[in-house]
Amino acid sequence: MVAILDVVVAWGLYIFFQPVNRSLSLLAALFRVVYATMLGIALTNLLSALRLSGGADSLKAFGADQLQAQMMVLLGAFQSAWDLSLIIFGLHLFILGIVNGHRDNAGALEHRADLSFLQLGVALAVAQPVWPGHGRP
To answer: What pTM value is reported for the model?
Structure first.
């Protein structure tokens, strides 16, 4: 569900920032969609690990050590995919900060919101390098 909402947010941000810079807005939306896709893929590893812990009859063929090893591989795959997806999300934030910086030149968003775009741009630029460090679920 979160991945689907991320795609909706990507579309909304693209529509919102399109008058400022269509190319960069599209690139930011693309990175957000890639992030959402990678999140969905990462979650499949997590769900597979959960299925291994469920104790189904078909799992009785494996020893406890084998099940634990398989679960650790799946959890490691989830963590690696999650970390990489957060780097992609950080790139998305960085591009949004750039697009926001172009807003002053274009003046296209002045009628859309009262939000301080300078503050938003600074927050996005600061969040980009820090975001992957806080990606532990």
So the answer is: 0.71
Residue spans of alpha helices (H) in 53-135 = 64-106, 117-130
Q: Reduced to 3 states, what is the DSSP secondary structure of residue 14?
A: helix
46 close to 75: Cβ distance less than 8 angstroms: yes
Q: Tell me: the pLDDT tens digits for 79-92?
A: 999 999 989 988 89
User: Residue 74 in contact with residue 46, Cβ under 8 Å?
Assistant: yes
Q: How far is CA 70 from CA 44, 47, 83, 136, in A?
A: 14, 13, 20, 21
Distance CA 112, CA 121 (A): 16
* Higher pLDDT among residues 107 and 9, named by residue: 9
Tens digit of pLDDT for each residue in 51-60?
A: 877 766 666 7
Distance CA 30, CA 24 (A): 10
**Nearest CA among 29, 26, 19, 132 for reference residue 82:** 132
Domain segments of the chain as ranges: 2-134
- In whole angstroms, what is the distance from residue 92 CA to residue 100 CA? 12
